Amino acid sequence: RSTPSENDLQLGAYTGTALAGSLYLSYPNSDSQTIYPAEVIPFPADTEIKTVAVDGYCNSTSASTISVDLYMAQTDDCGFSTDEPEPYPTDEMEPAASASVTVNTAGSADMPEELFAIACDGNGYTYTGGNLLVAFKARSKSYTDVYMAVDASRPGTSIHRYWTSRETDRWRINPAGMPVIRVTYRTPSGIGESAITPILSVTGGNGTIEIRSTQTRTITVYRADGTAAAHTAVTAGHPATAGPLAPGIYIVEGIKVCVR
What we know:
Helix content is 0%, strand content 49%. It has no helices and 21 strands. The chain has strands at 6-11, 16-18, 29-36, 47-58, 65-75, 94-102, 113-119, 125-127, 131-139, 146-151, 158-163, 172-173, 178-179, 181-186, 200-204, 209-213, 217-223, 228-234, 240-242, 248-252, 255-259. Strands 1, 2, 4, 7, 8, 10, 13 and 14 form an eight-stranded antiparallel beta sheet that branches. Strand 15 (200-204) and strand 16 form a beta hairpin. The protein is globular and about 60 Å long.
């Protein structure tokens, strides 16, 4: 019987960045709500979510401090109406954290960094299974050009609203898709990391393949003829690059990817 283990997991496949992510810091005030489907959450019920982090990059050279409130809940819904999306009342959700965060000014479009991380209150938020609803409220005295990680392959899963001085009731579907977040979590006693199926995303580039995984491990890239082309060490939640590779089709754990 194993002891509880603490791990790192990325929710969503990183496909790029957008100004509108978990927060929309181009405005001093922004709220967002995102439904993360159970298929991207491979850890078991009764897992404690300890921290939530957002990756991306900042175009500003001066750090901004933002007040952030974080809420979580389980839901049977898979997404939001694309016509007039209705937010969930946050007073019916569990307050997970309230913190003042300073946005990291490092990172770039080619190499995003952790913008900020929030520790959940107490023992963390207990995930009971199913789809996870995550809501952010951000308040600041200024605005900052911050680009946040998103998963463009999952439209209709996130809504937001934003304003400068007068609060708005108009919520919109986030056109960038599903904001990508990273969580640290502690599985219940008796269930270790080996019970969790890793999630993999791969992107072909010019002579390289970018690989992301929810678990730290070594991943083999195969040529179309079945021979190994590269072995790449991947750290959970962070991009790794396999290459240099000749142009062609490669296979990464059953996923075909084209290298230019």
